[in-house]
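Shape matters. As here.
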Amino acid sequence: MIEVKGPTGFTLSEAAKQAGVTPAAVYRHFEGREDLIAEAARQGYEIFADLMEFAYQSGQPSDLAAFEATGRAYLAFARKHPGHYIAMFESGISVNRTPELAAVANRANGVMERAATNLSKHIPEDKRPPASMFSAHIWAMSHGVVELFARNSPGRASPFPPEDLLETGIGIYLRGLGLIRPDE
């Protein structure tokens, strides 16, 4: 329902009907729609964190390959799990709404930050951005590509596949940091 109607486009009663349970049953587990969305976000972050960790591990032992894999995993997650993605990033639900949601959101962010930390060790210390800034830049770039071009936003079209936009954007960023050599 989140994917089809948006995070505010349905009631708990409608969700109960779709799930084949009574509204009273839903209210035994959730005080309101926001609690249901927060749970969808928590589940989404669990999937997202696992996917990011798998991508990171699959890119090892190269720090660069592991880092790039996390960016691609972000795009893949948004495509495969749009309802969870919306609950996580477009619902207005704070990641600090519950301790469980905060913990799993931090775990997902931690994978990107670890990838950035390991890769940034290849930058001279006096030119190295903080790992949290480094990972935030890639997160923002990934999120921007998803929002503008990967989710078929109305009125938005790109002559390039989202994967290519993300890969070239990350490449430009990494070249600017001196982590990869300019193309010859």
Remarks:
- The chain has a mean pLDDT of 89.
